[in-house]
Amino acid sequence: MTPFHAKVYHEVHILANHTLPSVTICAKVGKHPFSLHFPFGYLESSFINSFKFLFRQFPPVWLIYFENAQVLLISFNFLDSRLVTIIGHLHFTKEGLFVID
Fold first, then answer.
1. Which is nearest to 53 in space by CA: 75, 85, 27, 18?
2. pTM for this entry
3. Residue 21 located in a structural domain
4. What are the C-alpha distances in Å from 86 to residues 35, 58, 81, 93, 94?
5. What are phi and psi for residue 65, nearest 5 degrees?
6. Pairing mode, if any, of strands 11-14 and 23-26?
7. Secondary structure class of 52 (helix, strand, coil)
8. pLDDT per position as a tens digit, 13-43
9. Which of 65, 71, 64 is nearest to 89 (CA)?
């Protein structure tokens, strides 16, 4: 039996800077098999594809309301009570969506 000691992020809420409502996105969650460095394997929750999908659908004038919003990008649950999360801030340009900081 594999121990499970930490929260698995499966959805996040992104708050708009102004009058638009917040949005919710879901993660792709995958289990990676065990290895020498990860004896229990690990779970990976990634929100990156959801960000791309969601914000491509928004009208460009809406994107300014989500500029610099802090977001969770990827979470690693090593199934031994260790949880690592990578966060950043949304930044939009004419070339597309970027995550900074």
1. 27
2. 0.79
3. yes
4. 22, 24, 17, 22, 25
5. -75, -15
6. antiparallel
7. helix
8. 998 988 889 999 999 988 888 888 888 888 8
9. 71
